[in-house]
Amino acid sequence: MEDNVETGKKRTSSVLDVEKVEENKKFGSRLLKDESEVFSYNAWDHVDWDEEQEKSAKEKVSAQLENPVPLEEQEQYYKNPADYWNKFYEKNENRFFKNRNWLKIEFPELFDTSKVDAGRKRVFEIGCGAGNTMYPLLEQNKNAELFVYAADYSKTAVDVVVGNKNYNPKRSLAFVWDLSSPNIPEEIEAESLDIVVLIFVMSALAPEQWEQAVKNIYRMLKPGGLVLFRDYGRYDLAQLRFKKNRLLKENFYIRGDGTRVYFFTSEEIAKIFKQDNLFRIEQNAVDRRLIVNRQRKLKMYRVWLQGKFRKI
Questions:
Q1: For residues 239 and 253, is the Cβ–Cβ distance under 8 A?
Q2: Among 29, 193, 201, 250, which is least packed by CB within 10 angstroms?
Q3: How is 126-185 classified by DSSP, letter by letter?
Q4: Contact between residue 288 and residue 47 where contact means Cβ atoms under 8 Å apart
């Protein structure tokens, strides 16, 4: 589930490559240089944590480890996680659609497929939810040879996508599929995709499912195909807010509605996609933002991870 708190409109990329932190600070970023100005804007980019914040975050996570979900209750969250996502979308329907304005800034490669002279392109949005990537891409598409696939393991989510007045089967296809399945979907041929979009998806899988998920993505992509990735980072506000009896295993939680979420480190993401020499890492970045509630004088620290991985 994607938290709707990435406020403060982006004008430039707000991510920093983990290996090139200083040289990757983009011109135009809003940097907090004077703490007295913190409530002057809604958001600040590239906010570094001090030792006290880091210590506080670790203490909160340690407390969560001491109060996990009771063992007798854990099995239900592993047995059929799609049930919880179905209930989520039944409740929220298409109200959960978000206009991801940041997509064009962070993933220009995605929108290059929609240019009039781009040629035959195939894009797959995995974990499509309400079609939060598919529809913005198709709405501005000028490429007659672009086709977009969308899948979610929630049937209710797929029904929302198909029920959208803008759904056009000549330009797109939405279907139910679990990324951790032992096989790729029958709707997609092996080595046929140019781009796979993976936004707030891997975090919904259990850690033991990551290896199969990456192998499936690899099988579907053309040689040289690209994965566009964004997900939750370790010690993000959403992780630190969890109270007792929400932790399934280390850094893996259940929300109040029963859906699951994992909080990654950049090192974990690199290891996942470099397994068996399947992908070359073109970007492995962290997006640390300070979101400010100026009226209530609240500071909220967000941590997202972003990556671009090229099939070898």
A1: yes
A2: 250
A3: ES-TTTTTHHHHHHT---TTEEEEEEES-HHHHHHHHHSTT--TTTEEEEE--TTSSS--
A4: yes
Query: What is the predicted pLDDT for the residue at 101?
Result: 81
Q: What are the structure tokens assigned to 222, written together?
A: 């053309």
E strand intervals along 157-278: 172-176, 193-199, 221-232, 247-249, 252-254, 260-262
One-letter amino acid at 93 equals E
What kind and span of H or E run contains 28?
none
Task: Report the interhelical angle of 155-163 vs 81-92 (nearest 10°).
Answer: 30
139 to each of 58, 112, 128, 259, how far by Cα in Å?
Answer: 43, 14, 16, 30
Residue 49 DSSP one-character state: P
Q: Residues 81, 83, 84, CA angle at the centre, nearest 5°?
A: 75
Q: What is the pLDDT of residue 68?
A: 97
Return the amino acid letter for 195.
Answer: I
SS (H, E, C) 90-125: HHHHHHHCCCCCCHHHHCHHHHHCCCCCCCCEEEEE
Q: Which residues pair with 224 in a beta bridge?
A: none
The pLDDT assigned to 289 comes to 84
H-helix or E-strand spanning residue 308: strand 298-311
Residue 25: its pLDDT value, please?
52
Query: Mean pLDDT for each 10-residue chunk of the chain (312 residues)?
Result: 57 72 53 60 70 90 96 94 90 66 93 98 96 94 98 94 94 97 97 98 97 98 98 96 96 96 97 94 91 72 95 96
Q: Are 296 and 42 in contact (CB under 8 A)?
A: no
Give 33's contacts (C-beta < 8 A, 6+ positions apart). none
Provide CB contacts within 8 A for 151, sequence distance 6+.
Answer: 124, 125, 126, 127, 128, 158, 174, 175, 176, 177, 179, 185
Quick one: tokens of 57? 């975050």
Angle value at C-alpha 218, between 152 and 127, nearest 5 degrees: 15
